[in-house]
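[SOLVED] Need 3D model of a two-part complex

Original post:
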Amino acid sequence: TQLLEQSPQFLSIQEGENLTVYCNSSSVFSSLQWYRQEPGEGPVLLVTVVTGGEVKKLKRLTFQFGDARKDSSLHITAAQPGDTGLYLCAGAVQNQGGKLIFGQGTELSVKP
Amino acid sequence: GAGVSQTPSNKVTEKGKYVELRCDPISGHTALYWYRQSLGQGPEFLIYFQGTGAADDSGLPNDRFFAVRPEGSVSTLKIQRTERGDSAVYLCASSLGVRGGKDTQYFGPGTRLTVL
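Solution:
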Protein backbone atom coordinates (compact mmCIF):
# COMPACT_ATOMS: atom_id res chain seq x y z
CA THR A 1 0.00 0.00 0.00
CA GLN A 2 1.40 3.34 -1.03
CA LEU A 3 1.25 6.09 1.55
CA LEU A 4 1.91 9.79 1.30
CA GLU A 5 2.49 11.29 4.71
CA GLN A 6 1.61 14.98 4.85
CA SER A 7 2.51 17.24 7.76
CA PRO A 8 1.51 19.20 9.63
CA GLN A 9 -2.18 18.31 9.60
CA PHE A 10 -3.20 21.66 11.09
CA LEU A 11 -1.38 24.98 11.03
CA SER A 12 -2.52 28.28 12.52
CA ILE A 13 -0.26 31.27 11.97
CA GLN A 14 -0.31 35.05 11.93
CA GLU A 15 -0.35 37.09 8.75
CA GLY A 16 3.18 37.70 7.48
CA GLU A 17 4.69 34.48 8.82
CA ASN A 18 6.33 31.85 6.64
CA LEU A 19 5.38 28.17 6.63
CA THR A 20 6.33 24.88 5.04
CA VAL A 21 4.19 21.81 4.40
CA TYR A 22 5.86 18.46 3.79
CA CYS A 23 4.85 15.30 1.93
CA ASN A 24 6.93 12.16 2.26
CA SER A 25 6.68 8.63 0.94
CA SER A 26 8.70 5.50 0.35
CA SER A 27 7.22 5.27 -3.15
CA VAL A 28 8.66 6.90 -6.25
CA PHE A 29 6.26 9.20 -8.06
CA SER A 30 6.19 10.00 -11.76
CA SER A 31 4.66 13.34 -10.82
CA LEU A 32 3.47 15.14 -7.74
CA GLN A 33 0.64 17.61 -7.66
CA TRP A 34 -0.36 20.20 -5.10
CA TYR A 35 -3.99 21.17 -4.76
CA ARG A 36 -5.96 23.65 -2.68
CA GLN A 37 -9.50 22.80 -1.64
CA GLU A 38 -12.20 25.13 -0.32
CA PRO A 39 -15.18 23.82 1.69
CA GLY A 40 -17.83 22.30 -0.57
CA GLU A 41 -15.62 22.34 -3.63
CA GLY A 42 -13.30 19.95 -5.40
CA PRO A 43 -9.51 20.31 -5.23
CA VAL A 44 -8.05 22.98 -7.51
CA LEU A 45 -4.61 22.36 -8.98
CA LEU A 46 -1.81 24.69 -7.89
CA VAL A 47 1.19 23.05 -9.54
CA THR A 48 2.52 19.80 -11.00
CA VAL A 49 6.16 18.81 -10.59
CA VAL A 50 7.62 15.95 -12.60
CA THR A 51 11.43 16.14 -12.46
CA GLY A 52 13.51 15.21 -9.42
CA GLY A 53 14.91 18.36 -7.81
CA GLU A 54 12.45 20.59 -9.64
CA VAL A 55 11.48 23.88 -8.02
CA LYS A 56 8.43 25.86 -9.13
CA LYS A 57 7.27 29.23 -7.88
CA LEU A 58 3.77 30.60 -7.92
CA LYS A 59 3.86 34.13 -6.48
CA ARG A 60 4.57 33.60 -2.75
CA LEU A 61 4.34 29.81 -3.02
CA THR A 62 7.43 27.68 -3.72
CA PHE A 63 7.10 23.98 -4.53
CA GLN A 64 9.98 21.52 -4.51
CA PHE A 65 10.15 17.91 -5.68
CA GLY A 66 12.76 15.75 -3.99
CA ASP A 67 15.73 14.48 -5.99
CA ALA A 68 14.52 10.88 -5.64
CA ARG A 69 10.91 11.87 -6.47
CA LYS A 70 9.66 10.47 -3.14
CA ASP A 71 8.94 13.72 -1.32
CA SER A 72 7.85 17.30 -1.87
CA SER A 73 7.41 20.54 0.02
CA LEU A 74 5.29 23.65 -0.24
CA HIS A 75 6.67 26.86 1.24
CA ILE A 76 4.55 29.98 1.63
CA THR A 77 6.29 33.29 2.24
CA ALA A 78 4.54 36.09 4.12
CA ALA A 79 1.25 34.24 4.45
CA GLN A 80 -1.96 36.21 4.03
CA PRO A 81 -5.51 35.51 5.27
CA GLY A 82 -6.45 34.66 1.68
CA ASP A 83 -4.09 31.68 1.85
CA THR A 84 -6.40 30.01 4.38
CA GLY A 85 -7.64 26.65 3.16
CA LEU A 86 -6.91 22.94 2.82
CA TYR A 87 -3.71 22.06 0.95
CA LEU A 88 -3.33 18.58 -0.51
CA CYS A 89 -0.37 16.84 -2.07
CA ALA A 90 -1.00 13.96 -4.46
CA GLY A 91 1.46 11.64 -6.15
CA ALA A 92 1.09 9.56 -9.30
CA VAL A 93 2.85 6.31 -8.44
CA GLN A 94 5.37 5.18 -11.02
CA ASN A 95 4.08 2.42 -13.30
CA GLN A 96 0.55 2.66 -11.93
CA GLY A 97 -0.98 4.85 -14.59
CA GLY A 98 -2.82 7.99 -13.54
CA LYS A 99 -3.97 6.87 -10.11
CA LEU A 100 -3.22 9.57 -7.49
CA ILE A 101 -2.30 8.87 -3.89
CA PHE A 102 -3.27 11.82 -1.68
CA GLY A 103 -1.81 13.03 1.56
CA GLN A 104 -4.12 13.64 4.51
CA GLY A 105 -4.15 17.38 3.85
CA THR A 106 -2.95 20.44 5.77
CA GLU A 107 -5.63 22.76 7.13
CA LEU A 108 -4.03 26.21 7.11
CA SER A 109 -5.48 29.17 8.98
CA VAL A 110 -3.85 32.59 8.58
CA LYS A 111 -5.08 35.16 11.08
CA PRO A 112 -4.93 38.88 10.34
CA GLY B 1 -19.12 23.69 -19.72
CA ALA B 2 -15.41 24.19 -19.37
CA GLY B 3 -14.91 22.10 -16.23
CA VAL B 4 -15.82 18.73 -14.79
CA SER B 5 -19.43 18.63 -13.63
CA GLN B 6 -21.05 16.21 -11.20
CA THR B 7 -24.66 15.55 -10.41
CA PRO B 8 -26.36 15.60 -8.04
CA SER B 9 -24.41 17.94 -5.79
CA ASN B 10 -26.06 16.39 -2.74
CA LYS B 11 -27.75 13.03 -2.30
CA VAL B 12 -29.47 11.82 0.85
CA THR B 13 -30.60 8.22 0.88
CA GLU B 14 -31.61 5.53 3.31
CA LYS B 15 -29.53 2.56 4.28
CA GLY B 16 -30.01 -0.27 1.81
CA LYS B 17 -31.01 1.88 -1.14
CA TYR B 18 -29.32 2.10 -4.55
CA VAL B 19 -27.71 5.34 -5.77
CA GLU B 20 -26.13 6.58 -8.97
CA LEU B 21 -23.67 9.45 -9.17
CA ARG B 22 -22.89 11.07 -12.52
CA CYS B 23 -19.74 12.71 -13.83
CA ASP B 24 -19.31 14.77 -17.00
CA PRO B 25 -15.62 15.16 -17.78
CA ILE B 26 -13.92 17.97 -19.67
CA SER B 27 -14.56 17.54 -23.39
CA GLY B 28 -11.78 15.62 -25.08
CA HIS B 29 -10.35 14.14 -21.90
CA THR B 30 -9.82 10.42 -22.33
CA ALA B 31 -9.07 9.55 -18.70
CA LEU B 32 -11.67 9.77 -15.92
CA TYR B 33 -11.15 9.10 -12.22
CA TRP B 34 -13.36 8.57 -9.19
CA TYR B 35 -12.21 9.35 -5.65
CA ARG B 36 -13.93 9.34 -2.27
CA GLN B 37 -13.22 11.90 0.43
CA SER B 38 -14.27 11.43 4.02
CA LEU B 39 -14.45 14.35 6.42
CA GLY B 40 -11.01 15.60 7.39
CA GLN B 41 -9.18 13.29 5.00
CA GLY B 42 -7.55 13.51 1.61
CA PRO B 43 -9.32 11.92 -1.37
CA GLU B 44 -9.00 8.16 -1.73
CA PHE B 45 -8.73 6.58 -5.19
CA LEU B 46 -11.58 4.32 -6.31
CA ILE B 47 -11.30 3.63 -10.05
CA TYR B 48 -10.09 5.15 -13.29
CA PHE B 49 -11.07 4.76 -16.92
CA GLN B 50 -8.99 5.13 -20.01
CA GLY B 51 -11.61 5.52 -22.70
CA THR B 52 -14.48 3.12 -22.05
CA GLY B 53 -12.55 0.55 -20.08
CA ALA B 54 -11.70 0.50 -16.39
CA ALA B 55 -7.91 0.59 -16.33
CA ASP B 56 -7.61 0.25 -12.57
CA ASP B 57 -10.47 -0.53 -10.17
CA SER B 58 -8.28 -1.52 -7.25
CA GLY B 59 -9.73 1.19 -4.99
CA LEU B 60 -13.34 0.03 -5.10
CA PRO B 61 -14.04 -1.07 -1.50
CA ASN B 62 -16.29 -4.04 -2.32
CA ASP B 63 -18.67 -5.45 -4.92
CA ARG B 64 -21.44 -3.02 -3.95
CA PHE B 65 -19.55 -0.37 -5.90
CA PHE B 66 -19.51 -0.34 -9.68
CA ALA B 67 -18.73 2.29 -12.30
CA VAL B 68 -19.30 2.52 -16.04
CA ARG B 69 -18.30 4.79 -18.87
CA PRO B 70 -20.07 3.24 -21.87
CA GLU B 71 -19.23 5.85 -24.51
CA GLY B 72 -15.91 7.07 -23.19
CA SER B 73 -17.29 10.35 -21.89
CA VAL B 74 -19.89 10.49 -19.08
CA SER B 75 -19.36 8.09 -16.20
CA THR B 76 -21.74 6.79 -13.55
CA LEU B 77 -20.70 5.45 -10.16
CA LYS B 78 -23.27 3.02 -8.83
CA ILE B 79 -23.58 1.96 -5.20
CA GLN B 80 -25.89 -0.89 -4.22
CA ARG B 81 -27.30 -1.58 -0.76
CA THR B 82 -25.84 1.62 0.64
CA GLU B 83 -24.43 1.61 4.16
CA ARG B 84 -23.90 4.49 6.57
CA GLY B 85 -20.15 4.10 6.09
CA ASP B 86 -20.57 5.03 2.41
CA SER B 87 -21.34 8.62 3.45
CA ALA B 88 -18.65 10.83 1.95
CA VAL B 89 -17.97 13.28 -0.87
CA TYR B 90 -17.46 11.47 -4.16
CA LEU B 91 -15.12 13.36 -6.46
CA CYS B 92 -14.65 12.90 -10.17
CA ALA B 93 -11.63 14.11 -12.12
CA SER B 94 -10.55 13.97 -15.75
CA SER B 95 -7.28 14.35 -17.61
CA LEU B 96 -6.30 14.65 -21.23
CA GLY B 97 -4.54 11.30 -21.11
CA VAL B 98 -2.55 9.31 -18.60
CA ARG B 99 1.05 9.83 -19.78
CA GLY B 100 2.49 7.75 -16.98
CA GLY B 101 0.76 9.89 -14.36
CA LYS B 102 2.09 13.21 -15.64
CA ASP B 103 -1.16 14.54 -17.05
CA THR B 104 -2.91 16.96 -14.72
CA GLN B 105 -6.20 15.84 -13.22
CA TYR B 106 -8.99 18.42 -13.02
CA PHE B 107 -11.60 17.83 -10.35
CA GLY B 108 -15.32 18.40 -10.24
CA PRO B 109 -17.11 19.89 -7.20
CA GLY B 110 -18.12 16.48 -5.89
CA THR B 111 -21.33 14.80 -4.83
CA ARG B 112 -21.98 14.73 -1.10
CA LEU B 113 -23.64 11.40 -0.28
CA THR B 114 -25.37 10.97 3.06
CA VAL B 115 -26.72 7.57 4.01
CA LEU B 116 -29.20 7.72 6.90
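Edit: The domain at 5-111 of chain A is CATH 2.60.40.10 (Immunoglobulin-like).
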